[in-house]
Every structure is written in C-alpha cells, then in structure tokens.
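Hey all, sorry for the wall of text incoming. These are the two entities for the joint prediction.
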Amino acid sequence: MGTDTNIVVYFAHLDIERSVINRTLSKAVRDLPNVNFRDLHELYPDFFIDVATEQAILRDADLIVFQHPIYWYAAPAIFKHFLDTVLLHGFAYGPGGTALQGKDFLLAVSTGAPAEEYGPDGIHHYPFEELIRPVEQTARFCGMRFLPPLVLHGGHNLTQDLIEAHATKYRRFLEEYRPANTRQEQM
Amino acid sequence: MNEHSLLFNVFVYLLAAVIAVPISKRLGFGAVLGYLLAGIIIGPWGLSLIREAEDILHFAEFGVVLLLFAIGLELNPRRLWTMRKPILGLGGAQVVVTALILIGIEMAFGLTGSVALVAAMGLSLSSTAMALQLLMEKNLLSTPAGHSGFSVLLFQDIAVIPMLAVIPLLGASAVDAATTGFDWAGLLEAVGVIVLIVVGGRFALRPVLRLIAATGLREVFTAFALLLVIGTALLMQTVGMSMALGSFLAGVLLAESEYRHALETDIEPFKGLLLGLFFIAVGMSIDFGILLRDPLLIIGLALGLVAIKAVILYLLGRLYGLPVRQLPLFALVLSQGGEFAFVLFGVAQTAGVLPTAINDTLVVTVALSMLTTPLLMVIHDKLIEPRLDHAPAPPMDEMEDKGHPVIIAGFGRFGQIVGRLLHANGIDATVLEHDPNHIETLRRFRFKVFYGDASRLDLLRAAGAESAKVLVVAIDEREGAIRLIELVRENFPHLQIISRAWDVAHAFELLEAGVHVYERETFEGALKLGEEALKRLGFTTWRAKQAAHRFRAHDEETLHELYKHYHEDFDVRVNISANARESIRETMQADEDILSAQADQDWHETATDKSQDK
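and here's what came out:
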C-alpha cells in the first residue's frame, strides 16, 4: 500500500453510543495508517469549524470520504455546515478555487429502511441515487470524481454478520484505494 | 531494668521497627513478620532491652481497637446488614466447629471439662490484627476470601463477649457466682452502654464533630477522634465487653458521615504504630524458656493448631461456596491463634479456671502460631496461588471498594456546578471540602461531601484517589491548587487532573504543575457577557456567537504561544503578550472583513425592524 495515498474520512452521528452500524464501520477504518478519521461532532461540538485546518487537510487528501447515517435524505446537519463554511469561494469553486480538483469523493452511508423502499413503490418514493443528487453535484461542482457510494440499507434489521461483512468491504476499499491515474500522470 | 525511661523504650521500639520491618518487607515476608521478629530480638529472650512485654501488650491492644474503628468507618450499617449471613453462618460455624473439635483433641491430651472448654474457646479465635493487617497489606479485603475472612473475624469479636462472660461461672469461684445467680444488672448495663453508643453515635456525634471541625485546628480534631475511640473503648470495658467491638460500633455509626475520611486519616498513623507495637509485643511475649524446655511439644502444638484450623476453615469455606482458588488464602490467613486468646486465658487464669502451667503453654502456642501466618502467606503467594486455576473471581458487592470515578476538591460556587452536572448524569463524585459550615448546607441537598483539606495525601488516598479516574480541582486557593496538583501527579499519576484557573498566570502555573486541562474561571462567563454586549450593539445573535467563538480560538492560540516562552524573561513575555493583543484585534478584523464582504448589508436592519414590528 502506498503510504503517499492520503484519505480523510469525515464522520458524524447524533447518537454514536447506540449506533451499532456506524461504530462498526468507524472501527473498521479509523486505524488505517493513511486514513485521517475526523469525527466532526467530537472536533466541533459548538459547530465552530476551524476552516483553515480543514481546508489544509482537504488540500492534502486524495480521497475524501463522508461517512454518516442518512437523516431526512441528507447528512447530519454538521456536514452541511461543513460544506457551507469550508468549501468557500476561492477555495473550492470560483476564480482560483481549484483546491479539490481531481480528487475522489466517496459517500459511505447507512439507511434505516431496506433498499426496496427506495423506489416508486416504496415509502421513500425515489431511488436512493436520486435522493443523494445534491451531494453528488457538490462533488462534481468542485471538480471531484463522485465514486459509487457504499450504502448499507436496512439498518433497523441487520445481523451483526451482515454489518461486519459490510465493514470489511469498506475497509478493503480504503486499503486498496489508489488515486486515479490522471493525477499520477500529472505529477 | 524498670528504671528504663519511657523515651528510651520508645526509642528501642521505633529503632527495632525501622530496622526489622523494611528488611522483612524487602525479603518478601511482609511487615507483620518484621514486627514480630523485632519483638523477639528486643524482648527478654533476645537482647533483653525491654522487659515489660505484658504491659506493652495491654497497651498495644489499643491498636486493635483503632483498627476496628477504622474498619467500622468503612462499613455503614446497610452494608453491615447485608453481611449478616456470612457473619452468623460462616463465622458461627467456624467458632463452634473449631471449638468442638479442639475439645475432642484436648480430651485426648488429658485436659478436663472446664479447662478444655476455655482452651478450645480461646484457640478457636483468630487474630483480627494479624489477619486484617495481612489482608489490607495485600489489598485483598475486597476479594471473596477477604470478605469472608472479615465476617468470621467479626463474629469472633462478638463471640468473645459471651466467652468472657462464662469464664467466671466455670471457675473455682463458681460457687459464689452460683449463689448470686445470673448477673442481670451487668447485662442491663451492657445493653445500656450499647444503646448509648448507638443513639449517641447516630444523633449527637455529627453536630459535635462539626463544632470541633469549625475551630479549624487540625490537632483538636485529631485529639477528638482519639478521645472518641478511647472513650468508647473505656465505656465498653467498664461493662465487661470487648473494647474493639465498641469502637467498631462507633466506626459503623460514623461511616455515613462526611467526617469519615478525616477521621480515617487522623487515626491512621496511630493505628499503624500501635498495631506495629502490638506485633512487637507479641514477639516479645513468646516465652522461649517454655519453648526450649520442650521444643517438640510446643512447635507440634502450634503447627497442629494451625493445621486443624486451616483444614476446618477450608472445608467450611468450601461448604459456604467460596471460589476454590480463594479457599487456600481464606484458610491460611485465619489459621493462627489470636490476641483474644491472650485476654481469655488471662481472665481464666485469674479466675482460677486455667492452671498457670497450661496457660503458659497455650500462650506460647498461640504466639508461635501467629508467627507462622506471615510465612504461610509467603508460601501461599509463591507456591500455592500460581498453581491455582485463574478463573476470574465473581464480583463482590458488599465489601467492595466503592470508590467513585471522580473526586471533586473544593465544593464552593465553582465545584458545585461541576458536581451538579455530573450528578444529573448519574455519576457520583467524592467531594472534599474543608469548610464545615459549607458541608452542612450541602448535606441538605444530599451531596456526599467529606470534610478535609484536599491537599493531604492521606485524605486523597482515603477518598479513593487510587481507583478514581478524574480529579476536579475547584478549590478557591491559588497556591493550594498548585500544591494539590503536584502531590497528585507524584502519587497518583493515573489520575486525569482538570482544574479551575484564576487567570492566565495561574493557568501557566497549573500547566507547570502538570494539570491536564484547565479552565479560566471567569473566561466563559465573561465571553458570554461580551457576546450579549455585541448583541445589544446590533450584532445578530449568530454573529455575536461567531465573534465569541473566534475570539476564544485566537485567545487560546495566543496563550499556547505565550506558554511556549514561559521559561523566558518576564520582559520577553510582556512583549509577546502585548503583540498578541494587537494581533488578535487585527486577525479578528480581517475575519470580519471577509465575512462582511459576503454579507447582505441590509439583512440585519430588516431583521431587527421585523422583530420590532411584532
């Protein structure tokens, strides 16, 4: 594994003490040597995000992961606040705003309802990919590649084995991750 | 040699202890054996530096009294009540079974009725001082074996009372006793004294302790603590009951009071020294003359006694369901004869029940058996324990060391807020406060508060600093906080120390002393008020909050920077600090410019207008 590969995982959960899925997922990846695991609620309980620090971390990363449960078809509020305060004009977009260009972006999320509920016949009505369009477009707008999300559906009724299997898949993905060729060629 | 001055005797005791105990400990035999050997060496059969072994033994028995007082302090009535089964069941069985079997064996040796009975009663008792001291030294009191051992010892302490009571009825003077009939007046007196202790301890002691504590003179408090124990012991003695039991009772009654830790720590050095003296006295009183006359018989008796008691204890412990790997410890730690045997035999001899020759033999046997216990403990630790199956012992809740995870030092207007937050979240804290008036108020709010100066090592230990995780330093004395933190860093390095700081200078001193986290006591409150002021000058609530956040971040950064130069010249620091003040302003201004460039200038005005319209 190339140690020059930099991954930052941003994480938030409102009730991590009682979350089985996200605790398992976090445990699976937070000790990887090239992963900077950042629990946003732990770092910024007052929502006062250190913009300069986070911008520097984002600049250095090859892969940016947002790991969280889906609340109301979106991430926990602090993620939105993170986007609003860190991905500023002149940093992530606009003139000179090229800091995130060419990076990879991965969504690692979990939902309560099973996959079949995401569709015209399900209680959530829309396919899951439609519901996460705003994140996808945010990544694209900043010049990042939006990788296929790692989604664990049906969190309300999962066996520990299934959760572990998903956690292993998540870990392996981060372990085997290499920055896209285009960037290596640039260097 | 009677003209030996008191000071000279004290000098000899201390010297012997100071030399023998560390050597014994270093060799792995523990302190008790060291004291015993010191006693043998300075006693009539050693260097013969001291002759009055018996007087000393009587005096030093007060160490046992203090020991039981200290143990009583650890056991509140509720916990004592939960222990009634092991005390009566296991303790009762131990005394009765051991005494019966010993009577049988003694008959085989040709001892008759009443002599056999007295000898068996005395020998069935173990040494509270020895067993508890060993258990405490090894920190085993909270294990199942320690717990059961304590229960047995407690039963024995209570059993001494009826044993002492029947001796006169057995003796040559039995005829007189029979004519006067049962001593109803004596019984009434005894019950009266116990009632007096219970009622007085329950209702009168706390107010009195408060009055004494309010004087602020530590030595008066110590004097009162000793007075209390001695007074109780004397009271019990006058009605012919065990002094140790009386002081134990007094201890139990004070176990729930906030002065518990202070009493404990004040008694501690006296208890330690007197117990040491007690063991020295036991060592001195071993009559090697008798031993040398018939060494095989005496050694055989001592070893036989230990073996019989250990086997009975082992089997009873097993019957009682003690974990198998704890059984050897339980059996061995209680296998010796005890100090109550000396008392019992003494009384019996005076009453004419026990012939002098037999008394002497028994006393030497008991003393020798006490010598075996520290050695048996070494054998247990080195040879038996490692071979046992190391299944985890089941948790004991009754005698467990119930240390709270948090200690709050100082419970004034600062510490209280911390305590209330913890309490609201179901976390109990042990609170140390040195203002007795304060304590009284707090008790009304049902906080568990202890009286004492937190920067005393012994008090911290008594408050459970060994097992706590966090220490909150909230005392309202700058120097005291520093002293406390230095003390704790040195003695309890595992404790996380979080402390209240007066100002920046104090914060730096705290950091130097090794604090983990500090909080300037006025900072958050003042910042909040500053935020309010900004709001009243037209900032939106959100912007005022952001301004406060930014200010805090910059300020903390500056402090961090300043602390790096802490060891440099004062002038250098003044310079840095002045520059920092300017730079905070500039940085904040720059932040503000970026913000306002993006902000809609009209937004704020419309927002306030709207809110005024409503």
